[in-house]
Amino acid sequence: MKDGGFFSSLYEQIYNDVTNADMWMNIGVIALKIIAIIVVSRIVVSVVQAGVTQVFQHRRGSKLQMDQRRVDTMRVLVNNVVRYTLYFLAILMVLQQLGIDLKPVLVSAGVLGLAVGFGAQSLVRDVITGFFIIFEDQFAVGDFVTINNMTGTVQEIGLRITRIRSWTGEVHIFPNGTITQVTNFSLQNTLAVVDVSVAYEEDLKQVEDVLREVLRMAQSELTDIVAEPQILGVQALGPSEVTMRVTAECRPNTHHGVNRNLRAMIRTEFTKRGIQIPYPKIVAMQGKGQGQMQGQA
């Protein structure tokens, strides 16, 4: 008799629950909300990933000199971070609709994130800095740069480290998080500056005419010169020489070679025209009644 009453009560409770319209209405609303959260999250993930892919495709036409596999790796990394973040938020919203208290979950996630952050803060800083170095195109592989007072050619740009090689062969490795100052010599045209010294006895008008001829010849022969070289005039008056200054705008990081070529061409033309390069002179004074004697060192 007791068992019959128990089953009868259970049947009545189940029947009441099944026939409860308000309960089914609430279940339907919650189900619709969950479906909407899933659909919207998938749409948002697709839109954001398409935007990220478009951004990286646009970066291919920039000055960024990177291996295509690295560009694809960066794109996949960013897309994964976006997807996991948005899906994690969607899961939290679904759990909230199911009536699950999210405070313990958020507290646990916060404690775990704090522990990971303290343990790997330098690594996280390096990765974030490396990402922005690559994304903002601050410098590229092959650029001639000065990083933290070290000068050389960039050999590698990674998410964690940057590697440069100096002109004498040393390789310097920098964690990206320690890079505080960068000077890039490969982005803009550089200026070749050559100071030419001539003797005081030379006619400056003739010297300028010869220099103009040399500069016209250099502009036609040296492909690194991108604009007409200029004669700035007298730069300094020394003990035994007059210094003339000439300049030439060159392609990025080619001014050293242009300087050497200009000096050689000027020296050759001066020799042909008989224009003397100054040399130190000594004037010796003899005793009373003696003449003066002039010589050279």
From TrEMBL:
Gene3D superfamilies: 1.10.287.1260, 2.30.30.60, 3.30.70.100. Residues 193-277 form the Mechanosensitive ion channel MscS C-terminal domain. The chain crosses the membrane at residues 30-56, 77-99, 105-124. InterPro entries: LSM_dom_sf, MS_channel_1st, MS_channel_C, MscS_beta-dom_sf, MscS_channel_2nd, MscS_channel_C_sf, MscS_channel_TM-2, YbiO_bact. It is found in: Cell membrane. SUPFAM superfamilies: Mechanosensitive channel protein MscS (YggB), C-terminal domain, Mechanosensitive channel protein MscS (YggB), transmembrane region, Sm-like ribonucleoproteins. Residues 80-121 form the Mechanosensitive ion channel transmembrane helices 2/3 domain. It comes from the Bacteria. Pfam families: MS_channel_1st, MS_channel_2nd, MS_channel_3rd. It is a multi-pass membrane protein. Keywords: Cell membrane, Membrane, Transmembrane, Transmembrane helix. Residues 123-186 form the Mechanosensitive ion channel MscS domain. PANTHER family: MODERATE CONDUCTANCE MECHANOSENSITIVE CHANNEL YBIO (PTHR30460). Belongs to the MscS (TC 1.A.23) family. This is Mechanosensitive ion channel family protein. It comes from Brevibacillus brevis. The lineage of its organism: Bacteria, Bacillati, Bacillota, Bacilli, Bacillales.
